[in-house]
Write a structure and sequence with these properties.
Blueprint: H1 2-24, H2 34-52, H3 59-81, H4 83-90, E1 94-98, E2 101-102, H5 104-109, H6 114-123, E3 132-137, E4 143-147, E5 158-162, E6 165-166, H7 168-173, H8 178-188, E7 195-201, E8 204-209
Helix pairs in contact: 1-2, 1-3, 2-3, 3-4
């Protein structure tokens, strides 16, 4: 009888967790945020405990699992609407290499050592740091790499404005001021808060307005 109980619980939780993860949204394992990772660990632990203690009330496991999923979905919705909340929950990408130069200060801040950097470079068939123009450490821990181009005028597009919020770190990187940005926006006759996405590439600011997003 106990074997059947364990079997039934295993099948039940398999179906339930599959359904709940579909509700949470599709993501590759390597792209899980810290919050996703924590929720996954808690769910796995509670499922294991429930299957092991097959005589206990199954609702004692279902309720906290569903609560965690609802909480995670709630955080995702808030993060979608708020840049500040997104930074708190998911963190921010870090520029590890900029214009071919390693940002050791940022590496120290992220506790990301040179071995980590070289390992990820080799994983993307990069033989040496000299081949890299930009390298961005994403919030998932993955390193996005942009190789140096033969075209010296070509540069990596830097996200300057996201959902109406100015990224001041990028403003410093491109060696521009807020006065310059204000003038550029005035040329386009658009306010900062009305910009959905603005990026700087090849010494020019490109803008996508919120009212043009369907």
């Amino acid at each position: 009888m106990k074997y059947l109980a364990v079997f039934y619980r295993s099948v039940f939780f398999y179906v339930l967790i599959t359904f709940l993860y579909r509700l949470m949204g599709k993501r590759e394992m390597g792209e899980l945020t810290i919050m996703d990772f924590i929720v996954s660990i808690f769910i796995a632990e509670m499922v294991a405990i429930s299957i092991e203690n097959y005589k206990s009330d199954i609702l004692l496991s279902i309720i906290p699992i569903v609560s965690l999923v609802v909480l995670q979905i709630g955080f995702s919705i808030v993060s979608l609407k708020s840049q500040k909340a997104r930074n708190v929950v998911d963190g921010e990408p870090s520029v590890i290499i900029s214009r071919g130069k390693i940002n050791f200060k940022e590496m120290l801040k992220q506790r990301y050592n040179l071995d980590d950097l070289l390992t990820q470079l080799r994983g993307q068939s990069i033989k040496s740091i000299e081949e890299v123009d930009y390298a961005i450490l994403e919030t998932s821990g993955k390193l996005s790499i942009f190789k140096k181009s033969d075209d010296k005028k070509s540069t990596y597009p830097l996200a300057l404005i996201l959902d109406g919020k100015l990224n001041e770190d990028v403003l410093v990187q491109i060696r521009k001021s807020k006065i310059w940005l204000r003038k550029e926006l005035e040329k386009e006759k658009i306010r900062l808060e009305d910009v959905f996405y603005g990026f700087y590439k090849n010494k020019k600011l490109y803008i996508i307005e919120k009212n043009k997003i369907k």
